[in-house]
Structure formats: structure tokens, C-alpha cells
Amino acid sequence: MSKLAALDDLLELYYQLNYHQNPDIFQRLQDVQAWQKVRMQSTHLRQFAEKHNILMSEYFLNRLYGGSDFDALAGQIARLMKYAHKAEKLIPENAIRTGTSGVSLAILAVQLDEQVAIQLLKDYHPHEKLTDEMMRLTYLKLDQGQQRLQQLDLLDQLGLSLDQYMRSFMVYTAFKMCKGAASKYNFQVMYEFMQDGFLAMKPLKSAEKFVKDFTAVERQIIHQVHAADPNPFQYQ
């Protein structure tokens, strides 16, 4: 079986999301993602502001949590599957596995936020500006706690994999050698997705530590939401 086969399943899941066929869901999803980013920037202000964390925090906000160009990335991944045999010869297995985990997390984030968007459309006017209270009540109604915790567990695993497999000089050298082919065959969005990840890791002593610091706070937020805290997004 192809090492890239898991990407096929992920793409099928992604293209089955409702927002692709429903502009109202798409717009509300964008609202949810924008709220999420502002909330995370506020919640993790101290961690994200540290000089060595800036690039990784931007990668989290713009790549793993609903990047605006994810449709283009998904399209390029779909095309890559036509060249799977060749790609597997060029890309180390651990890099493929780690990259697949990153794509999986990005899709899971969209999937969970789409559920929020659909519920908001049921309960509120589609153009009503999102507030913390609207989001708090929606999270409670959907009861996504376990799914969100699973998302954080997967993120912890990704942080560990980044340190184990993606800091290798050989892996990065092999990646840089693919730049010309990426441009020639129009895989620039995919290349940039991975390149941004490499660049974000460079200033860090440990990607795993960055991720664990992030997920520890996010778990506390989830706990506060489901403990009926009236201000669950205000983390001290």
C-alpha cells in the first residue's frame, strides 16, 4: 500500500465538508475561524510574543487552524497522488507521516469549526457578529469537548514527530532539493506549506515544548467551557 494512501482518505473527508456547496456555511465558517484566531492570539499572547515563538505561532494560526489557501493545498495534494510512486522515492517515510499528520490536523480543525458554523446559523442571524458568549453557548450545545481534546492529543504527537524527524539535516536537504521540481510541476503551495513549517521550527529549541505549552492552555479553556465558566476564554 502506498505511504501516501492516507492522504487520499483525508482529501475525501475534506471534500465532503458542507461548506464547499453552501456559501452561507462557508461565510460563517470564515467568521468562526477569524474569531478562533483572535481568541488564540489573546489567550496565548505571552507565549506567542516570545521572539523565538513568533514564526511557529504564525504557522499555527495561518496553516494548522484554517489557512486561507487550504483549498489550493488540497488540490495540489490530490494532484500529487498521481505521482505517488515517484514522490515516495524522494520524500523520507517519516517526513511523509509527519506531513500527513499536519494535513490531518488542519482538516480536523476545519471539520470541527464547520460544525460550529452550522449550529450558529441555526441559532443566530447569519450576519450577526460573533461574540465570546455566542461561541461559549455554541460549544456547550455541540458538546465537542472530547473531539477537541483528541485534536490536542494529535497535536502533541505532531510536536514530538517534528522534533524527531524534521530537524534532520538530511531531511531538510532532501526537501530543498525538491524546490525546483515543486515549481516546475506547480506544487508551490504545498512546498510553501512545508517550508513555512521548517522555518517556524528553526528558532525553537523544541517544537514539542512549544506545542505542549500551547495544548496545556487549550485543555484548560476546554475544561472551563464545559465547567460552565461564564468567561472560559480568559486564561490567566
Global Rg = 18 Å
What is the tally of helical segments? 13
Beta percentage is under 5%
Beta-strand segment tally:
0
Q: Structural class, please? A: mainly alpha
Overall 3D shape? globular
Strand count, sense and closure of the main sheet?
none
Organism: Acinetobacter kyonggiensis
InterPro entries: DUF8198 (IPR058511), FFLEE_fam (IPR058063)
Protein name: DUF8198 domain-containing protein
Pfam family, one: DUF8198
Short overview:
75% of the residues lie in helices and 0% in strands.
Explain this structure:
Helix 2 (23-43) crosses helix 7 and helix 9 runs antiparallel to helix 13 (207-226). Helices cover 75% and strands 0% of the residues. The longest helix is centred in the middle third of the chain and has 31 residues, at 93-123. The protein is an all-alpha fold and 236 residues long. The protein is built from 13 helices and no strands. The protein has one domain (5-16, 23-226).
